[in-house]
Amino acid sequence: MSEHPQIPHSVKQDPFSKPLVLGPSSQEFLDLAEESVDASQFPGTFYHEVGGREVFAQLTKNFYASVAEDQDFRAMYPEKDLHPAQVRLQLFLEQYWGGPTTYSEHRGHPRLRMRHGNFTVNSHYRDVWLGHMNKAIDQLELPPLQAETLRDYFERAAHSMLNTPD
After folding, report:
1. Local structure of residue 141 (DSSP, 8 states)
2. Does residue 15 register a pLDDT over 70?
3. Is the pTM of this model over 0.90?
4. Structural domain span for residue 153
5. pLDDT value of residue 16
6. Does residue 4 lie within any of the structural domains?
7. What's the number of domains the chain is made of?
8. Where are the alpha helices (DSSP H) in the chain?
9. Which CATH number characterizes residue 134's domain?
10. Over the Cα atoms of the chain, what is R_g?
């Protein structure tokens, strides 16, 4: 059994998934989000229906651009550079909607509640998060049914992340 690299004390390791992506492999993980994927390889999925990787990449870029402009909400994100968070969200959404399983292959099971457990998520922050995501969805100019499908998912997911009373 191989030993895991020493993790700095400021970084918490997810005990329920693969080790954190560190060192040179971090860049490799980020590069995976840039690789071309033929959405037609995933017929019958929402991933294919909306246009695949390009749409999810643009959605997450729009979202994090909006977050970056919100100084109060931006403070919740510990990383100086939001790009790694954008890639993680992109790859998670691609997998959730029936696309490549790259996220789980490199990060393990999503375990969203656990991964967000260190952050204060009350109704205010849930609503702020949803505001940024809805803005990002609007910028995609998707057909109404596709946009509403995304909104419905994000609404339910955001409510499930609540971990702090108001």
Report:
1. T
2. no
3. no
4. 24-160
5. 38
6. no
7. 1
8. 24-32, 46-50, 53-68, 71-74, 83-96, 102-107, 112-115, 123-140, 144-160
9. 1.10.490.10
10. 16
